Every structure is written in C-alpha cells, then in structure tokens.
Amino acid sequence: MHVAQFVHRYPPALGGAEAYTARLSEYLAARGDTVTVWTTTAIELTDFWRPKRAAVSSPSPLAGEGNRASRPGEGEGHTTGIASPFTRRSKTRGTLSRSGERATNQNHGHNSNGADAAPLAPNIRRYSPLHFPARRYVLKALSLLPVRSWQCLTSPCNPVCPAMWRDVGRYDGPLDAVHATAFPYSFPIVCGLRLAKRRGVPFFVTPFLHIGDPTDPADHTRRQYTRPHLRWLLKQADGVFVQTNAERDVALSLGVREEHVHLQGLGVDVAECTGGDRRRAHSSWGVTPSEVVIGHLANNSEEKGTCDLLRAAERAWAAGHRFRVVLAGPEMPNFRTFWRNFAGKHHVTRLGVLTDAQKRDFFAGIDAFALPSRTDSFGLVLLEAWANGKPNVVYRAGGPGELVRHELDGLQAKCGDVSELAHHLGRLAEDASLRRELGEAGRQRLPHDFTWDRSLSLVRDTLSDAAERPVTPTSARRVAATPR
C-alpha cells in the first residue's frame, strides 16, 4: 500500500501529533507499505510565522545511521526513530554535507549479499513556510472570504507552504490513500485533500480535536478547533479517526457521518518510558529522598495547564503542604511571561527538553504527574506516568477527562478550578498509599486498554480496506497504483 501522510511538523520537532505521525509512518513502513510524509521544515510552532531555523539545517536527533533528510521544499529523504512528544534523543549518527543533507551509502532493497534488506523508512518531503511582513494581518483579511478551502489555506496559524500546494497538483507517484493530521493546522491537510481528490483515492483525517471544558458551551479551545473551515475538512474525509468517546461525539455533532468515524485510542510502549534511575534524578534535581515531587511534562504553557499547576501549587504550599514541582518540556512564550512574576520559584525545578534517558529518569523520580490541560485530545504522557506506577491529576477536559478515572487511577478537578486542583495536589503530597493505589490501578490498565499494535493496526486496516473499495462518484477517477 502506498500512503501519503500530511502533517504540520515532523520529528525532530516535538509534540504529540508529531510523535504519533512518526510512529504511524514507521509502523506502516515496517509492514511493507511505502509512506511519503509531506511536512514543513519547522522545529518550533513559531517557525510557521517567522523565520528562525530549519529542521534540516542540523543533524536530526532521530535519524539513524545511513538516513538522510531532504532539503526544504525539494527532493525526498527519510528518517527513522520515534520521539516521545516532548523528548529528544541524546545521540545522532551519520554525517551532514554543507547543504544539510544527510550523507548515506545505504542500498535499499538488498544488502551486499543480495538478501532482502529491511523495509524502507518513510520518505520525507519538507517545505519551508512562507514569511512576509504583516503576515498575520494579511492572512486574517484573506481568510474572511467565506470559501472553506480558501480559509484552510489562509488561516493565520497555518504554515503557508505554496510549494507544497504546487507539488500535490503535480505528484504522480503510486498512491492508494492519503492520511492527514492535525487541527487546527489546515494548510497541510487541505493539500492532502487536494491530492486525494485529484488522484481519486480515499482521504482520512486524524484531527486530534481539543474540545476543552465539556460544561462550557462557549469554550474558547473548542471554538478554535471547530471553526467552519475545519468542520468542512472533517466532512470531506472518507474517514475520521478519533481518540475518545467525547471526541467522537463532537465529530458527530459537527455533521460527520457516523459510519465515517473510527474510535481509535492510542497506546504506550512501556520500554520507552520506564527503567529510569530515581536516585540519579533526585541527585540532579537537588531533591532530598523524603521530598514529594509532582511532575509535569508538556509544552509548558497556559493551554497545557502549566501556569494553573503553579497557581494551584502556591495555594497548596500556603495551606501547609510540602512538595516540589518539576517541569519538563519546551517553554512557550505565555509561560515565560507568567514565570517572570511567579513568587514560588524556589519550589520549582525546570528541566527543559529531555533526552529519552532523562525522560525515563523523570518518571522514576516523580511521585505523581499533573496535566491540568485544556488542549489534549488524548494525553500520551498520562499513559507513560501510569507505566511507571504514578497517579495522574488532570482537569476534567478533553481526552484526560475521559482517560483518567476519578478516585480509581487518578484525580480530576473541574476545568479551570485552581482551588480544587490545589486540594488534589495536597492529597497526593500527603498520602503515599493513595499515590501507590492510584498509580498501580493505572498501570494495570495498560496491557488491556492501551497497546500500539491494536491502535495502529486499526488505522492500517481501515486505510487498506478503503483503498480496495471502488471510489465514490464524487471522487476524481483513480489512477492505477503499484500492486500492494
């Protein structure tokens, strides 16, 4: 099967959708499928809006020996290795030429003895986002034209890549299905839709809808992820993969046909996130053996709940509870603004982006994990905390609000209720037996409810089945693909 995968960023960029896309692409390639990833050169989200650095200007932390990265906007390359959403691999192998292209002597298809080699890794096509003066205001004005496909191209948050749009209009390689992710970055997704319609192949979307506070009908986060042009995109798809029942309900409420919605759910690879050294972590953090540690691994920001976590921690400290907060992951501008005026800095350790080894130590070193996020469609890091036997405390919002079962394997606070969150932090800080009970209950769920093989095989089987069916009358005539 030949699959085109569209995504706004790809490793070494960090993030949940980015890591998931890499994992899915590797999974398909390992089973003999040919995967072409269409993405951007962006590392940080801000690279969409202003020039900073390109993903292919330095060795990829995720690239293995003999792999190469493509130049921005031209050619095809491939990379291997799967990042955790907020961690970088600590070592790289291989060399780079002055152009930034990874040198390779690897022969694909056969090894030196003539035997079949390992399956090809995904091919990566990277495109540089367009930058120009007053970009945000120009795109905002252009997006007011009420043509949904046009709004997908001109939404100000987008990575605008004219060369990607051009190339999907020309691409004539073998193709059986198109899969795209994630909202609200509609430019790459509508490029995928254009390719699918032009070639007459099925088009699938994994939107990772952020649905926010379920009790607030005017929730800002949900409004941003269900804007008219995004609703239109969902209804263009031959299939929509959702991660929770709540996300499924939202998709149906937006007019997606029930038979087009596939409840997927994600998984965790326990070996990737366990086996850390608690003593080493505490030593590097300057934490005493008796000190309770509340961990947080995310894009540190208001949206991910980092600031609310620290606001709640201040209240818990004022009430006499003693614990340390350890923050890990990239820091967003609104968090840095908050941090400048935060009074409790001496109770907080900031680690920044972690290597894989540091991530394992992080989970070994903490006693509980906090993710009071408004913007998680699932929450892979919650599974990683459970894999280490650590309880989770979350807001009752989005994926975490469905994933964590209150008082069974974690604790929930009403979305935005800092006082309730502070109360739960205090409970976890004071009650070691509660932490063990909740954490172990979460760990017991993993082999039954959250395996990658089940999750990814559902996607592959769905794509393959759709590729075998005749195209619908509204699709363009399908050109012949290389036999699967």
Q: What does it look like?
A:
- Helix 3 (148-154) crosses helix 7 (228-236) and helix 10 crosses helix 13 (356-365).
- The chain is α/β, with parallel strands linked by helices and 484 residues long.
- It folds into two domains: 2-266 and 453-468, Rossmann fold, CATH 3.40.50; 273-449, 3-Layer(aba) Sandwich (Rossmann fold).
- The protein is built from 18 helices and 16 strands.
- The chain has helices at 16-30, 135-142, 148-154, 162-168, 186-199, 220-225, 228-236, 245-253, 270-273, 278-285, 306-318, 333-340, 356-365, 380-387, 398-403, 418-430, 432-449, 452-468; strands at 2-6, 34-40, 77-78, 87-88, 123-127, 177-180, 203-205, 239-242, 261-263, 293-297, 324-328, 348-350, 354-355, 368-371, 392-396, 410-414.
- Helix 1 (16-30) links the parallel strand 1 (2-6) and strand 2 (34-40).
- The protein has an eight-stranded mixed β-sheet, sandwiched between helices.
Characteristic key phrases:
484 residues; alpha/beta; Rossmann fold; eight-stranded mixed sheet; six-stranded parallel sheet; 18 helices; globular; disordered C terminus
